[in-house]
Amino acid sequence: MKHACKPEQAAEMIPDGSVVLIGGFMAVGTPERIMDALVARGARNLTVVANDTAMPGKGIGKLISAGAVSRVIASHIGLNPETQQKMISGEIEVELVPQGTLVERIRAAGVGLGGVLTKTGLGTPVEDGKPTVEINGETFLLETPIRGDFALLAARQADYVGNLEYSLTAHNFNPIMALAAETVIAEPQLIVPVGVISPDSVKTPGVLVDHLIERAA
Amino acid sequence: MKHACKPEQAAEMIPDGSVVLIGGFMAVGTPERIMDALVARGARNLTVVANDTAMPGKGIGKLISAGAVSRVIASHIGLNPETQQKMISGEIEVELVPQGTLVERIRAAGVGLGGVLTKTGLGTPVEDGKPTVEINGETFLLETPIRGDFALLAARQADYVGNLEYSLTAHNFNPIMALAAETVIAEPQLIVPVGVISPDSVKTPGVLVDHLIERAA
Amino acid sequence: MEAKEIIARRVAHEVKTDMLVNLGIGLPSLVANYLPKDVHVFFQAENGVIGLGARPPEGMEDPDLTDAGGGFVTALPGAASIDSAMSFGLIRGGHLDMTVLGGLQVDARGYLANWMIPGKMVPGMGGAMDLVAGAKKVVIAMVHTAKGAHKILPECTLPLTAQRRVSLIVTEMAVIEPTEAGLVLKERHPDVSVDEVIAATGASLIMHGDVPPMQLT
Amino acid sequence: MEAKEIIARRVAHEVKTDMLVNLGIGLPSLVANYLPKDVHVFFQAENGVIGLGARPPEGMEDPDLTDAGGGFVTALPGAASIDSAMSFGLIRGGHLDMTVLGGLQVDARGYLANWMIPGKMVPGMGGAMDLVAGAKKVVIAMVHTAKGAHKILPECTLPLTAQRRVSLIVTEMAVIEPTEAGLVLKERHPDVSVDEVIAATGASLIMHGDVPPMQLT
């Protein structure tokens, strides 16, 4: 059984300089209370791995505005002008990764694969400096796994053992990120007794989840 | 919307010599009615890709007994003495693949990856004749994708558009195989109206499913 | 008729019943408005749903259900929630029948550039590279020229999105099919002459006999 | 006390609260019977469930819920259904805290052979190679000798299961820890002398001072 923790406690667990995988797509499926707590704590120098950096005032955008982030690995930053400005000024280093490659690189780390062999990015700037592998006469780009110190997830509901369910388009990167970090912290909208979530509805087994954020006040 | 077909029609669709991915683990989660229909049709020379060949009289074991299979790619054949006998007599060619590697090889075909980079099998006979790839000083075995002409799946229930739900340990290889064949045929225990299965409960989107087997008489 | 409407109307004719289709943000998303009544397709939003529907009634928006642009949407009966791994597994694994994307440039090889202007605009590729590398059919929906400058060129000057020939280019002036031999002019807008299309195009166009008018109803 | 029971009782002490544990078929599965009352763990059955429970009441068996040996089981409250990709993702990605497996041979390097006897028994490796390559802790539960023949050898003569040093060997005579320096004799059965263990072991054993008796309660 998990002990629920406050968002502030979660933020204390995450040292400056950590690599954090953060669920969400344009802030849908992003753990907002953990974002707020990281900002309140004055977190610095985080490497954020996420699909995007949302927009100012939402999700990961809050971390960007607060100056908590020094590096971003994402597929898209176009809707957050602050990320773009900070990239140009050199405050934030940005690695752009095709979205499908990003999720497979995180999954590779999570399921113990040595890398990802993909056609995505071939013949584009994504290929620069990366090895290619020839398989049966076809060329594939070799992309390396991405692992986090922490995964910060949003979920629809959790039970007391940490089993997670997600809703509609708020799944996105959350179930995969749950596999790929040393410490997994989930912020569910609801926490329900064991047995309320059927085994067949569990998308992330509780054994992967280290901490649950307590119910909102 | 899908049109339900009879198991015999499904068996007619599958020519002798096809590569068939078949869901199931010791016949749990295997489409038994399709198995029966393939036996009834006198199918020959099939390449079966599956976790195992079950036991005589159950699941894939029926195909083995009927002489429908000339090649097996599986992780385990130990509980079906007929498979072992036919392997020794040369009637069936068997490729043994570690279970985790097998599911990743099928997934790689299904999601467009060039192969699988894994530590499983290194230093064992599984490595023989396969290339290795060095990534950041670590050695990985390169395993190639496995694609089927057909995927034959069992599911708990389907709706009219082919969305599938699975139950408990009857999931096993079914959801991954749904991605990796030219033609996907699913045998659900129940067929329910559209809307009965919530979007969040769908494990295999109907767009992947080509044919549903009609309700049992 | 506005250029965007012409393009969207023409692209709509490429959409056939039972296809799984992904529409890019902006111009491509307009295609959904012009589908023939008898065409039933599932639209995928790469952020996590198959069976995307129109904007919900006022006050009924679900913050966990948006499209890839972040706008509120609905899910149609028969919809399926998918995480990013499944979403891009479908795209990269060849399960997506068609994607419609905007373009900055397309060249005589049929290569697309649509994700960055060095030194000016670096929003990230999002899912574009995966979509172009993986979809069965890639339709580029774009205006023919940009402020008088050619967008269809002998060779792209902007970084490529993928090293894969797109299937079709649809502009307000013409329908062009990239082939091994070069760009084939298939159709022209009824009010535009072949000479006008040639003048507006930076790459050579191949013609096989008469160039019929585009169908816009 | 029978050899099997001795082994299972001793291995049970390796299981700690909150671990995710996979027990192999046969002898290893007995470990579940001897867990201390205050130890709460989730057992994984690699065929698809986390939270495996004992055999169900007569007449309440679910054909869709079996263990990896094909026997009927139950699912405990808080259980999660997992498909083969998730199951082996957990195993290969380092999420499985401990696996207990049988062994044919273990050698001075700590390498295990447990999946085939060339020319005699080729059942297939099932999940064994993945489990040994991927689990955090690999415990080998086996009888010390086979009909008088050594099973703990300078170097395995049978094909290896993995090129990875196992964590612990538990037999009815001793507990042995493979290390960089060789096999360390950690404990002996209370009724067995160190000399008897040495005589029954084909590889050299290292001792650091006294060898305490195994805990069997």
From TrEMBL, chains A, B:
One MF annotation (Gene Ontology) recorded for this entry: CoA-transferase activity
A Pfam family the protein falls into: CoA_trans
Keyword Transferase: yes
Domain of life: Bacteria
Keywords: Transferase
Family classification: Belongs to the 3-oxoacid CoA-transferase subunit A family.
Record-given protein name: Acetyl-CoA--acetoacetyl-CoA transferase subunit alpha
UniProtKB/TrEMBL annotation, chains C, D:
Entry's transmembrane regions: none
GO molecular function: CoA-transferase activity
SMART domains reported for this sequence: CoA_trans
InterPro entries for the chain: 3-oxoacid_CoA-transf_B, CoA_trans_fam_I, NagB/RpiA_transferase-like
Keywords, comma-separated and alphabetical: Transferase
UniProt record similarity statement: Belongs to the 3-oxoacid CoA-transferase subunit B family.
Protein name: Succinyl-CoA--3-ketoacid-CoA transferase
Source organism (scientific name): Roseibium aquae
